[in-house]
Design goal:
single chain, alpha/beta, Rossmann fold, six-stranded parallel β-sheet, elongated, binds NADP nicotinamide-adenine-dinucleotide phosphate, Precorrin-6x_reduct, cobalamin biosynthesis, oxidoreductase, precorrin-6A reductase activity, Cobalt-precorrin-6A reductase
Length: 259
């Protein structure tokens, strides 16, 4: 039996794990960080951090893992770098799976930034000069913040902006929380609902990570249709090496490796 560790945290990683479970020569072990209270996960998952690179190296050796599939979210860069380093140290192959990022389309009014801190700078700047976004006439006052809960503190000092913050679980108790309202929900999201949210809350800008995939894309379509500008946070740099962008690609790569 070939033992494959799948690093998860996304719907795609669940699909990858379920498909790998159907390959008779492979025993799949999925790993989830355990951040959300009621995570959606495949069966037989191990939960919790490994303890950095040393912990992961030890785990790979102890569990006699033959191959690592990194199916973590494109913004979960720490685990991806750790997986790259640990797999090289143990001398086993590692494949990085990432769905492609979203590309700007006609009608999109995006400002692309490196991180959430830069996104906050853009929102602050437009308060003073109302022409930061294309066609912007009025100051942006109501922002739909769709970056999850971990980094909302980066926007807490923007007291003149009201934020609608969407997340799965409540923020940590010691988090700085921007002025506004929290909306608890888990993707995939629907275009009709996203349009309705933007209208009901009178949203005049969206902050989004460039996650790629279809589950969270409807807000980007709604923004395009409604002329709402988007501050789009670019993906962090990820380790080089073999990469695929769809679930079938993972399965084909694995079959090539083992047969
Ligand atoms: P991160 O910064 O890359 O990882 C932080 C730490 O969490 C890692 O060093 C590792 O702890 C642990 N960890 C992460 N993924 C793990 C996994 N699959 N199995 C075991 N331990 C894991 O990740 P993050 O941005 O905090 O995200 C946490 C999880 O949520 C990830 O699995 C990611 O795929 C998922 N997720 C993240 C986002 C996002 O926007 N960041 C969105 C959707 C889902 P040790 O160093 O102790 O091993």
């Amino acid at each position: 039996m070939i033992r494959v560790l799948i690093l998860g945290g996304t719907g795609d990683a669940i699909e990858i794990t379920n498909k790998i479970n159907q390959i008779p020569e492979i025993q799949a072990i999925a790993s989830w960080a355990g951040r959300t209270k009621n995570p959606v996960m495949p069966p037989n998952v191990r939960i919790g951090g490994f303890g950095g690179v040393p912990g992961l190296v030890e785990y790979l050796r102890e569990q006699k893992i033959d191959i690592v599939i990194d199916g973590s979210h494109p913004f979960a860069d720490r685990i991806s770098w750790n997986a790259d380093t640990a797999a090289r140290e143990v001398g086993i192959p590692r494949l990085l799976f990432h769905r492609p990022g979203w590309e700007k389309e006609p009608g999109d009014n995006w400002i692309e930034v490196e991180n959430n801190r830069e996104a906050a700078v853009i929102l602050d700047k437009q308060r003073v000069s109302h022409q930061v976004f294309k066609n912007q006439i009025n100051p942006i006052k109501r922002v739909f913040l769709t970056i999850g809960r971990q980094e909302i503190g980066a926007f807490a000092h923007l007291e003149e902006i009201w934020f609608l913050m969407r997340m799965i679980d409540p923020p940590e108790v010691d988090s700085k929380i921007p002025r506004g309202e929290i909306l608890f929900n888990r993707g995939p999201f629907d275009l009709r609902d996203e349009r309705e949210i933007c209208t009901r809350y009178n949203i005049d800008a969206i902050v989004s990570k460039n996650s790629g995939g279809s589950a969270t894309y409807p807000k980007i379509i709604a923004a395009r249709e409604m002329g709402i500008p988007v501050v789009m946070v670019k993906r962090p740099p990820l380790p080089p090496g073999e990469q695929v962008t769809d679930v079938e690609g993972v399965i084909n790569w694995l079959i090539d490796k083992i047969r």
